[in-house]
Amino acid sequence: MPVLPVEPVATPRPQHIRLVVDHRRGQGSADRQQPGAGDRRERVRALLEKVAECTDPQELKALRDQVVLECRGVASAVAARYRGRGVDRNDLEQLANLGLVKAVRRWQPGRSEDFLQFAVPTIAGEIKRYFRDHSAAVRPPRRIQELRAALTSSEDERPVGSADDDGHAADGRSDDARRAEELGVSEAAIREAREAVRLCRPISLDAQSGWGCPIADTWGSEDERITQIEDRMTVQVLMRSLSPREREIVRMRFVEGMSQARIGECIGVSQMQVSRLLRSITSKLYQELAS
């Protein structure tokens, strides 16, 4: 599907949004935002009437594309409601456009008096599904997700200057207390939802750390000496099964790096005997390790 051009649209008039969004009222506000909304509705209605009667696939596609272009401003208005929640604005616009395309394809004559009464919930549903399934790196419980969405919507409605820098309103109540009363939950739940918003936003590894370097540069790597310590401790236990003479042969061969001939000179045996002794020692060590 071709990517639709994005038409900048002003943020719609805030609605009083609680846990359930009133899509029909939101659709009305989106209409009022658009100049010539009545003319557009008439054009869309006429196009959809042609869609219902069209039998030619190419013409049907062209008519549906025209409906999408007529209504993309409404899609932008719906997308604007979800800004500031951790998803890029352009991604929101494309999700809204995708929902609009799906609404046009699913539209059936007689389903609703106004196409937008069907399209707006479809667009919002597409965006909400993305938030539910993809937007958060850490997904909190559903209860927290719903409260977080309601809290964000409630804060979008807050009048400018309604709270001071400390988050207190003119009546002295904290912002959390007012939001809790508006949404019908406890202040503790509001604080939990705010914390969930903070914790669910992933931080880029390229972001600066407190040490003046990217976070990725502060990550530790596996120290090879840790593995060496484990190996040494294992060998120390195994060496206890050897006689003092065998331990000395192991030390000269594997610690000092002496040749078999040199070891033979030190302990008074031939190089061939040293070779047999080493095979016997290593076999004993393997058996101890396996047991």
TrEMBL record:
What does the UniProt keyword field contain?
Answer: DNA-binding, Sigma factor, Transcription, Transcription regulation
Give an example GO molecular function.
Answer: sigma factor activity
One GO process term, biological-process aspect:
DNA-templated transcription initiation
Give the start-end ranges of region Disordered.
Answer: 150-182
* Coiled coil (residue ranges): none
Against Pfam families, the record matches this protein to:
Sigma70_r2, Sigma70_r4
What the entry lists under InterPro entries is as follows: RNA_pol_sigma-70_dom (IPR014284), RNA_pol_sigma70 (IPR000943), RNA_pol_sigma70_r2 (IPR007627), RNA_pol_sigma70_r4 (IPR007630), RNA_pol_sigma_r2 (IPR013325), RNA_pol_sigma_r3/r4-like (IPR013324)
The UniProt regions of compositional bias labelled Basic and acidic residues, in chain numbering, are: 155-182
CDD domains hit by this protein: Sigma70_r4
Q: Which Gene3D superfamilies match?
A: 1.20.120.1810, 1.20.140.160
**Start and end of every RNA polymerase sigma-70 region domain?**
75-135, 239-286
Q: What is this protein called?
A: RNA polymerase sigma factor
What organism is this sequence from? Nakamurella endophytica
